[in-house]
Design a protein that fits this description.
- The complex is a heterodimer of chains A (671) and B (309).
- Chain A is α/β, with parallel strands linked by helices and 671 residues long.
- Chain A has 28 helices and 16 strands.
- A two-stranded antiparallel sheet of chain B has the order 1-4.
- Chain B has a domain at 22-236.
- Chain B is mostly helical.
- Chain B contains 11 helices and 4 strands, in the order H-H-H-H-E-E-E-H-H-H-H-E-H-H-H.
- Classes of the chains: A alpha/beta (671), B mainly alpha (309).
- The interface between A and B is large, with 46 and 46 residues.
Chain lengths: 671, 309
């Protein structure tokens, strides 16, 4: 047997390798789809088909939670609440639970076939019978509405708080369902929910039609997830997950995108709730309690947080394990226990320990395999020695691609700061600072540590509120704008301690820089019209173009994770990311920190060339030779106050500056 | 009893519950203050400790509520039960930190929080599978002594709860403000990196926070048992959520905040139950959590809003 297999593999493996990855992925999808479609024909056991249909419902839930937890990095512990909302929405709209008095009000609804008029003994009532197919999107919309309603208050806070609020939300939704029996029939549950109908065929209680609806639902949600993931929307979510501050600095409206993730995740659960309740034809509060939320979380942790196929596999494996194999496994353990004469092994009931197993899976996966069964990102082959060697190149960039809007020649400075005061409690970090940056200039801000340089950058880019004063950019007041709006106006920045998105590739990092300049919304990403494809291709091309500015330092590494880059390459990537946003004004916070002299000179030349091509630059720098070679104007801060301003040479001779840097006595010693 | 008397009585009850929530909230706040981690395992450390307390009392031969002690025997029994429960809870907390959280130190994102959920779930199910799903009659050696003060009835067990809670909080305050380790703890909460550079053993501080927080949860768990005369595998969830709300209400990371928040949540629970309906209590407390997070994210006594990332 083994001899037979070996040559087979030897022949098959190279053949398999010759298939392009794209074709391989397509073949995989075709195979999976075929298997899914044929399953009920091969295995005609109704109970098996039924548990497969349930597993599909949980795969759909896992896909939804994956958008919230996996893509956007927000922990939602009450996800079952949205499942419940979708379930009750369909349950109420298609059962006998609500029977209001008939009146003229209901006539248009009767005409739409949402309700029928029903006469019982002495009563003339309305019977709701909204179609299952209509309720799928409607329940999704209702759940999304609640997602926004409950997400909005907390999404401005740190992500952890969402976990606790959703935990509470997941707790109260079943309580409300139990406490409002007039609508939900309380703890006894809704009964007689109508089965779906398609072209006059009633689904009834046979599992097979539900199974196919489940397959279609999961396939549709996989498609949505994949398309969102590989789009501007997905990149914005992952940017928030990786580093919220940097995401905001690169133009991502955090609250909006978190809400979007939360709403889409809730919508998946809402639609699934409708499917699930139509299948069971009943809904009780117990079906949507905390253990359900945890189970879905376990599924995505097991399959791979953020990995679309991973979470589907995770959900199917765990669900099918529960319904098909747990009994058998327990029997085997009992047999093993009898064999080795261990008493407790003979009494293990895995079915009742399933939640314990879930807890163990959560902890063990987090400790030993955080990326899950099928990781979201694939390892990239290491670079060859040749690819790794890069020569320091002097002379700056040549052949810059169009850097975008640097055509400000209106009257007045590009950036004009007047009377800016920033306080932290009692500490005045900036006191009445005046600063103007003329268009096309390079202005350097220097000063001892703690003099307020980075505070100045944070105030300009909207990360710190100004206590007093004005910040005008191209004549517009931007002092009150949030960070993403500042970027949209044309100010991009880098950070003193580098804030890249570590688990995204270099190319993705740069493409997130373009966030504000692209305009594909969720719908565009879903439909993937030619316009979207063009924009996506163009933005990838542009990212490569910008990365190629740094010669072969970044180009061989475009598909590497940013976390794997060297320090200097991270600085370069951060600058490339800022350039991708087509800024008018570039704020560089100690761009050469931590670089060796050769790298420093190389970067200084590059910054100079950016300026030559029309970009206005405001930079914080400690290396005075860099400042002297780059800056048209130097501003000196000390203890939050501007103590000098002028050409590099003039500032170098300024008594106050020498005093600030070397101490008062040194200043006197020179006199 | 007049309406006024009923409300006053509910205030007394609320203070007792509040003392328990405050002790439980301190555990959330101590850990959050240092690690910025919501420790979901804390919910069920509380639940497991209530069983430890029960076993400790049963070990001394006490069962049910008929086995009443007085005088020194009572004091000794209670001291033993509290000591055993608090030490066991503290050790459990430290074990959780060492085994499941320390390997994740420095891992960004939701990994540590997901781990604490997993640990919580494990504790929950271990008790469910070993002890069972029923609720246990809690051994209680306290004699039923009541004092009538106007329209309000005061019970011995309430005085005991207040006494224990106040003593523990004073001790915690003394520890944090006066001792070397306490000072290191406050420094770490302010800035772990700077504290490390100043020679503070941050890992030791974290272990201390877990030990103290869990030990206080142990005390709260014993109080729960003595107050309600029962325990069950399910008590961690509701009590934990309320105590967490208390910590947020007081200002998460703030020790006095957790105490004030605990008392307020206790009062809200009893008065809300009296004035509205007990079955809506959880909804009321959840609404408070959301409202606090929306309008006063710093809480009543917190210093900085939980917006940094």
């Amino acid at each position: 047997m083994a001899e037979l297999e070996k040559p087979l593999i030897r022949i098959a493996a190279p053949l398999f390798a010759r298939i392009s990855p794209r074709l391989r992925a397509r073949l995989g999808i075709v195979l999976v789809t075929t298997a899914a479609l044929l399953f009920p024909l091969v295995n005609q056991n109704d109970a098996d088909i039924d548990s497969a249909a349930n597993a599909l419902a949980f795969a759909a839930l896992a896909l939804g939670l994956n958008i919230v937890v996996g893509f956007a990095g927000l922990l939602d512990l009450g996800y079952a609440a949205f499942f419940a909302i979708g379930a009750y929405a369909y349950g109420v709209a298609s059962s006998w639970q609500l029977q209001p008095q008939w009146s003229g009000f209901w006539e248009p609804f009767q005409w739409l076939d949402f309700v029928t008029r029903f006469h019982t003994a002495g009563a003339d009532v309305v019977h709701f019978q909204v179609s299952f197919w209509l309720m799928l999107p409607v329940a999704a919309a209702i759940a999304a509405f609640f997602g926004v309603l409950f997400g909005a208050p907390t999404l401005r806070l740190k992500g952890d708080y969402l976990a606790i609020v959703t935990l509470g939300f997941g707790e109260i939704v079943p309580i409300v369902a139990r406490n409002t029996p007039s609508v939900t029939n309380g703890a006894m549950g809704l009964n007689g929910v109508a089965a779906p109908q398609l072209f006059g065929y009633n689904f009834g209680v046979d599992a097979t039609p539900y199974y196919y609806v489940g397959v279609a639902l999961v396939a549709f949600l996989i498609l949505i997830s994949q398309r969102l993931k590989d789009s501007r929307i997905g990149r914005a979510w992952m940017a928030i997950r990786e580093d919220e501050i940097a995401a905001a600095a690169m133009g991502v409206d955090r609250v909006r995108f978190k809400l979007l993730a939360f709403a889409i995740g809730a919508a998946f659960a809402g639609a699934t709730g409708t499917f699930y309740v139509a299948k069971l034809q009943t809904a009780t509060p117990e079906m949507f309690m905390f253990p359900v939320s945890v189970m879905v979380l376990v599924m995505i942790v097991f399959g791979g947080i953020g990995s679309v196929w991973g979470v589907v596999v995770g959900a199917l494996v765990l669900q099918i394990l529960q319904s098909w194999f747990l009994e058998d496994l327990s029997q085997w353990l009992h047999a093993l226990g009898r064999l080795v004469n261990i008493d407790w092994l003979q009494r293990v009931e895995l079915a009742s320990s399933i939640e314990l197993i879930f807890g163990l899976i959560l902890v063990l996966m987090m400790l030993y395999r955080r990326e899950g069964l099928i990781p979201a990102s694939r390892p990239v082959p290491a670079l060859t020695v040749n690819e790794q060697t890069a020569q320091a190149v002097r002379g700056g960039f040549s052949g810059l691609p169009d850097l975008g809007a640097v055509d400000h020649d209106a009257q007045g400075p590009l950036l004009d700061i007047t009377d800016l005061t920033v306080r932290f409690g009692g500490l005045v970090a900036l006191r009445s600072v005046e600063l103007s940056v003329p268009a096309h200039a390079v202005v350097a801000v220097i000063g001892p540590n703690g003099s307020g340089k980075s505070t100045l950058f944070n105030a300009v880019t909207g990360f710190l509120p100004a206590h007093r004063g004005n910040i005008r950019f191209v004549g517009e007041e931007i002092g009150r704008l949030p960070p993403h709006a500042v970027l949209e106006r044309g100010i991009a920045r880098t950070f003193q301690n580098i804030r890249l998105f570590p688990n995204l590739t270099v190319a993705e990092n740069v493409m997130i820089g373009m966030h504000a300049r692209l305009d594909i919304g969720p719908l565009g990403a879903l439909l993937r019209l030619p316009k979207t494809r063009r924009e996506e291709a163009a933005s990838r091309e542009r990212a490569l173009e910008i990365l190629s500015l740094f010669g072969n330092r970044l180009l061989p590494r475009v598909d590497h994770l940013a976390a794997s880059l060297s320090y200097a390459n991270r600085r370069r990537t951060e600058i490339a990311r800022a350039l991708a946003s087509q800024p008018k004004l570039l704020l560089l916070d100690e761009p050469t920190a931590g670089m060796n002299p050769a790298e420093t000179l190389e970067l200084a030349d590059q910054i100079k060339s950016l300026n030559r091509f029309g970009l206005t630059i405001l930079l914080i720098e400690h290396k005075l030779d860099v400042v002297v070679s780059l800056a048209d104007k130097v501003v000196v801060l000390d203890h939050g106050e501007k103590i000098a301003e002028g050409t590099p040479d003039a500032v170098r001779r300024d008594e106050a500056v020498i005093g600030a840097y070397l101490g008062r006595s040194a200043a006197f010693a020179r006199v | 009893m007049s309406d006024y008397g009923v409300l006053l009585q509910q205030v007394v009850n609320g203070l007792s519950l509040g003392a328990m929530y405050a002790l439980l909230a301190l555990g959330f706040t101590l850990v959050y203050g240092i690690l910025e981690l919501i420790n979901f395992a804390h919910f069920n450390v509380f639940m497991v400790s209530s069983f430890v307390g029960m076993w400790a009392l049963e070990f001394l031969g006490i069962s049910g509520q008929s086995h009443v002690l007085t005088g020194l025997a009572l004091a000794g029994t209670l001291a033993f039960a509290f000591a055993v429960t608090m030490i066991a809870a503290g050790v459990l907390g430290v074990a959780i930190e060492r085994l499941s959280l320390r390997p994740l130190r420095g891992v960004r994102g939701t990994a540590a929080m997901i781990t604490t959920i997993g640990v919580s779930y494990i504790l929950f199910n271990v008790i469910l599978l070993t002890v069972g799903a029923g609720s246990e009659n809690y051994p209680n050696p306290l004699p039923v002594v009541r004092w009538q003060l106007g329209e309000v009835t005061l019970e011995l067990k309430e005085l005991l709860i207040w006494g224990v809670a106040v003593a523990l909080m004073v001790a915690l305050h003394f520890f944090v403000s006066r001792t070397r380790l306490g000072k290191a703890m406050r420094a770490t909460a302010q800035d772990a990196e700077a504290a490390r550079m100043m020679g503070v053993d941050v890992d030791r501080v974290i272990v201390t926070a877990f030990f103290l927080g869990s030990a206080l949860a142990g005390a709260a768990a014993l109080i729960f048992g003595l107050y309600y005369n029962y325990t069950s595998f399910i008590i961690g969830y509701t009590a934990g959520l309320r105590a967490f709300t208390a910590a947020v209400l007081g200002g998460i990371g703030s020790i006095p905040g957790a105490m004030v928040g605990g008392l307020l949540i206790g009062l809200i629970e009893t008065l809300g139950g009296q004035l509205i309906a007990v079955r809506w209590t959880d909804v009321i407390i959840f609404s408070i959590l959301v409202l606090v997070l929306v309008f006063v994210p710093t809480g009543l006594l917190g210093r900085s809003a939980p917006t940094k990332s």
